[in-house]
Amino acid sequence: MQETLVREVSGPRVPFFSSATIFDGGPESRLPMFARAIGYEDILRVAARAHLIVERLKRRDRSALTDLYAKTSSRAYGLIRSIIRDETIAASTLKKVYLEIWQQPSSAFSGEASPEHQVLALARRRALDTHGARPVDARTDSGPQIAPDTPDAVTMLKTAYLEPRPLEELARQFDLTPKEAQDRLWNGILAMKGGRE
Amino acid sequence: MSTTPDDRELLATAYLLGHATEDQARQFQELERTDADFRQLVRDLSEWLAPLGDEAPEEMPPAGLLDDILAEIDREDVAATSGSAPVRKTTTPGLWRPAAIAASMIAAIAVGTHFVPEEPGEREARELIALLAAENAPGAIAIVYRPATGELTADFAAIPLPENAVWQLWRIRDGAPGPVSLGLLDDRSQPGRFELTFADQVLDPSDTVAISLEPVGGSTQAGPSGPVLFASTVSEL
């Protein structure tokens, strides 16, 4: 049987396989075992899911949008409401997010994150854009607060992301100067980046 | 990207974390409009930050919002259809309403249980997918299989079809005596796509699918007779 190179589309580099190796058949057929062993399925699945959603949206399949809405709308709305307190404006922003996804699916899902994360990122971004050229208001509600005792960078970043507020207020909450808060947020971002690699 | 952020990174971070000043917000918007590198930085930062959204408090959008969205889509489609641009539609206006209600109910349940639900209809609606690519060749083939309907599609827009030969699709299953042919991918009626329909369920998660290059008419033996061009395991969405 002719020797052929086979490689998966994404994930870790896969050693070359010959077709003879794959197609010898029987329980010794090695490719499925190997595929599981190197654990690339998750990476593949994320890419595949985004691809599939985009394809369905491009074909004007409304169920693709309603499925996505069912999975993501409550969290996306929660993120938007953390930035836009007005319910009418927040709802309008959420509506624009899903219309944007419908109209420009390739653009909406151009990243490498999961489709759900890309929806959340888009929702939050559009909330920031809608909120306008001014910092998010100082918080006056009694939402969840994270204790100010030397938080790690990701914890502080999470607070800033989920409960947006002026930098000075964030710094005060964590007993830091604004510059120290900035540096710590950046360290948190680098940690998030590292977590993806 | 260094451990000390530069001015552009600080600006993008300030905006994306919601603490940009008015002046910073204006700078951000101007740079994003005019600077491709800055847009890429913003895209990267947004993507790294996105998983934090998993911990956002869930809040049900107003009832009827999905209806509004779908009605808006209908209006756009009608407007497009009445113009010159053809619009492919998979449902008639108004038929989305049951799906919208179901989606809203699922979203409500998700909020109540803090649980991200499966696809509506769960197992019946599940889809299996495999992405296949060849060494040193551009593009990939996406195979999507819907057990509920038996439909299998193979999208290969970026990959040229062979001349004077055909692709043959195979299933490889652990414990099976050998590869099983799922058919020839030789219908050229739809550019960039093959469609097959099966009466029985032919794929399960963890199966492997492969495509071999065969003479016209297919392999003349039990397994592939030509080289295997693509292979990948099947994943459940």
The total strand number of chain A stands at 1
- Rounded to the nearest angstrom, the distance between the terminal CA atoms of chain A is 38 Å
Biggest beta sheet summary of chain B: 5 strands, antiparallel
Compute the CA-based radius of gyration of chain A: 22 Å
Oligomer: heterodimer
What order do the helices and strands of chain A follow? EHHHHHHHHHH
- Approximate strand percentage of chain B: 15-25%
Task: Describe the model.
The complex is a heterodimer of chains A (197) and B (237). Chain A has 197 residues and is mainly α. Chain A has ten helices and one strand. Chain B is elongated, with a radius of gyration of 24 Å. In chain B, helix 1 packs across helix 2, helix 1 packs across helix 3 and helix 2 packs across helix 3. In chain B, the strands form two sheets. Chain B has a five-stranded antiparallel β-sheet, with no helix packed on it. A four-stranded antiparallel β-sheet of chain B has the order 5-4-7-8, with no helix packed on it. In chain B, strand 4 and strand 5 form a beta hairpin. Chain B has 237 residues and is of the alpha+beta class. Chain B starts with 6 loop residues before the first helix and ends with a strand. Chain B is built from five helices and nine strands; from the N terminus they run H-H-H-H-H-E-E-E-E-E-E-E-E-E. At the A-B interface, strand 1, helix 1, helix 2, helix 3 and helix 4 of A face helix 1, helix 2, helix 3, helix 4 and helix 5 of B. Strand 1 of chain A pairs antiparallel with strand 1 of chain B, so a sheet runs across the interface.
Task: Note the main attributes of this structure.
heterodimer, A: 197 residues, mainly alpha, disordered N terminus, B: 237 residues, alpha+beta, five-stranded antiparallel β-sheet, four-stranded antiparallel β-sheet, 30% helix, elongated
